[in-house]
């Protein structure tokens, strides 16, 4: 079973808060000094990249795939969509298709959309 964890981008100070379990996240219930509008909450996908790094919604990954005559190496944000038919998390932007091969696609976390937006904006 996938561990349910979250992390949060604190907009005011522009820092990424450490990953938290669901129990820790619930403990952040708004108090007098906490404004949830100041945070962007991101969920753990349950996946790890090729280096063992946890992949969260909002991460930017390098995706390398060779399958038959198809080959691509590009950068994508990890997005969440509850209606996505292959699962709730997917590679965003103009992904050319799903790499079908005997091996998992080669994913590597290279940043996130809050601290490294230039990785996506360079397209």
Write structural notes for this entry:
The chain contains two helices and eight strands, in the order ββαββββββα. The termini are far apart. The chain has one domain. It is mainly β. The longest helix is centred in the N-terminal third of the chain and has 5 residues. A hairpin with a 4-residue loop joins strand 1 and strand 2.
Defining traits:
four-stranded antiparallel beta sheet, mainly beta
Helix share bin: under 10%
The strand line-up of the biggest sheet is 2-1-3-4
Question: Rounded to an integer, what's the Rg over CA atoms?
Answer: 16 Å
Structural class: mainly beta
Q: What is the mean predicted local confidence, pLDDT? A: 77
> What is the overall shape?
elongated
Quick take:
The protein has 123 residues and is mainly beta. The protein has helices at 22-26, 118-121; strands spanning 5-10, 15-21, 39-48, 54-56, 59-67, 70-80, 89-91, 106-112.
What's the helix and strand layout?
Elements: E1 5-10, E2 15-21, H1 22-26, E3 39-48, E4 54-56, E5 59-67, E6 70-80, E7 89-91, E8 106-112, H2 118-121
């Amino acid at each position: 079973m996938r561990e349910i964890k979250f992390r949060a981008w604190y907009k005011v100070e522009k820092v990424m808060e450490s990953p938290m379990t669901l129990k820790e996240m619930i403990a952040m219930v708004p108090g007098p000094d906490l404004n949830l509008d100041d945070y962007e909450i991101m969920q753990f996908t349950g996946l790890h990249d090729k280096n063992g790094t946890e992949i969260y919604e909002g991460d930017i990954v390098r995706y390398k795939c060779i399958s038959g005559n198809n080959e691509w190496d590009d950068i994508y944000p990890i997005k969440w969509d509850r209606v996505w038919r292959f699962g709730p998390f997917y590679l965003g932007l103009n992904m050319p298709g799903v790499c079908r091969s005997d091996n998992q696609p080669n994913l590597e976390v290279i940043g996130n959309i809050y601290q490294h937006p230039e990785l996506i904006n360079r397209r």
